[in-house]
Amino acid sequence: MEPTTIGLIGMGLMLLMILLHVPIGVAMGVAGVATFGMIRGNLAPALTLFGTETVGKVGSTELAVIPLFLLMGSFATVGGLSSDLYRIAQAFFGHVRGGLAVATIGGCAGFGAICGSSVATATTMTRIALPEMMKRNYSERLATGSIAAGGTLGMLIPPSIILVLYGVLTEQFVKTLFVAALLPGLLAVGLHVLTILILVRRNPALAAAGEKQPWSESLRALRNGWTAVLLMIVVTGGIYAGIFSVNESAAVGAFLAFLIALLRGRLTWPGFWAALRETAATTSMIYLMTIGASIFTYAVTISGLPEVIVNGIRDTGLPGIWVVLLLMVMYLILGSIFETISSMVITIPFVYPLILGYGYDPIWWGILTVMVIEIGMITPPIGMNVFVMKAMLPRTSLSTIYAGVGPFIVADLIRLGILIAFPAVSLALVNLFNLPH
Question: Which has the closest alpha carbon to 192: 110, 109, 124?
């Protein structure tokens, strides 16, 4: 049997196991070993992949930042930093019509960057921001839409766990990806804020204007939440300034978040162990996916299937830009069904060689990939963030939340179009600092 045919069988086996609800990391690992074994005609060398790839990933210094950033997020949640960030944004923007929704976007972006999870951000901000907006007679559509959409921002704004994972799987420099994501992340926040301002200008009934607080109150909110600001500055600023490596920054961030929660008296023994258990569970899931993806990628590369796919698509004469647009549609669909990491690890073995074959920059593509998968998390008919919010708000209809996220999806698609048409937006700072890519 031809190796490429075996590669197709292996891919089919992987998809079948996923449909049967086998964990994705296990499905990819088993399919990879089976594929490699069939190509070699001997299962014994294939089984050694479980050992070599596991040792390689567990010993990876690049992957080591993931549990540290996850731990930082867990301690930050225990320490109440999400509330601090929201109150700061509320103090400065709450008096503007739609200002609480704007503050929600700012709070989501800040906390999402710290905790590294879209779902966790949407969940946390639903508890914190939604009651405040409903108390001030905000439209339920605008309130839920701004939270669900704002929850997607943290995955792009450094430090981002999904960017770390992309860097490991594609052998790209994580720091370069962080720097490249900075401008697109700021653009995302800006477009979401602009969307809110346009909505409330066209329909003032969506949100009332709050009372303007004196500067003393705004400064008090900033003073009370200075620890949250400090954590963000130390972690991100330390990386960009060259003071810390990414690993060192993650370790410092985790220690600072722990210290903040401890000094505030919020870190009890049960809370401490809960944070460790949460971090361990998520880390195990990510490592399992990474090991499985590595085994599967190795097997399908040996089969020559990615090369056949790349050559087949190029032989159709389809321009590269059309390939990119088709892949964007595919990722939107995947992002609405799978969670972020799953969507990426499943597709990288086939999509990444295709992008390189068309001569596109892998850093630019990484930013696009993370961005479009996150947009999928609020895209009908599923949208992970939307369903999480619906579970927390049984009296709110799905149609209300989908109507709320609709304008933000339009803004996200505009942002996606800008980055596709002008790759320099993603690569400007990378080129300015002469970072490797």
Answer: 109
